[in-house]
Design brief:
Blueprint lengths: L16 H4 L3 H25 L5 H8 L13 H11 L10 H21 L7 H26 L3 H21 L9 H34 L5 H11 L1
Amino acid sequence: MIPKDSDSSSDGDWDDPEELGWTEFEWEKYLRSQDEVVQRYISLYEQAGQAEDRIDFVARQMDWDDLSGEDGNDDEDQDELDDLDDFDPYTLQRNPVFIAATALYQLITRNWELSIIGNPGVPAALAVSFQTSLFRGERNALLGIQSLDLGDYTLGVSLFKRAMRDLNVSMGYLNAPEFREGGVLASFRTAAMPQLFDLREVLLRVVRECRDEIARHPRPTDEDEGDKRAGEA
């Protein structure tokens, strides 16, 4: 799940924009292409329906091995894909976790907006509070993903835990009486709950991988640093 094709390092170095030399038009074209990738994820996710392995199904269709644990292509096909990807710079928008999280948040937010527009039965406070909880969760999740690209897995874990707390808040709002009285809100709740659980599953998988990375590369303690300085003396 942690991207292996990233050009980032522990110092946070991405592709040098001056060396790339792209114009604003070229960057806009690139960003639009990444928006299309997010929309493709949403389309595949909706096609998966209620399948229990829908997260892994979409990952395979996206030719990812990080989210599914399986290779989406044989070696020859993957080499061809890697060659094509080399023409584009690595940015956060290409991170599989970024794409998955962004797509799921967009899907939930879009359906929520469709549910409340023109629906006077939705209390304004509930509508705003639920929307705010989604915004906080997405912000913390995206900040966590950025931390991974900067090589700080411990910070990433902390931010993902915050995002999961925000998801719990969002789920709590969906247990309000208004969502259990039938109608549009009940239909929204039926669709949104599995999507929120899928978001949490994505974040849990990233947290597990981050902790594995932390265990493999533990940070030196103050005692270790003292021993090192003593040895240099």
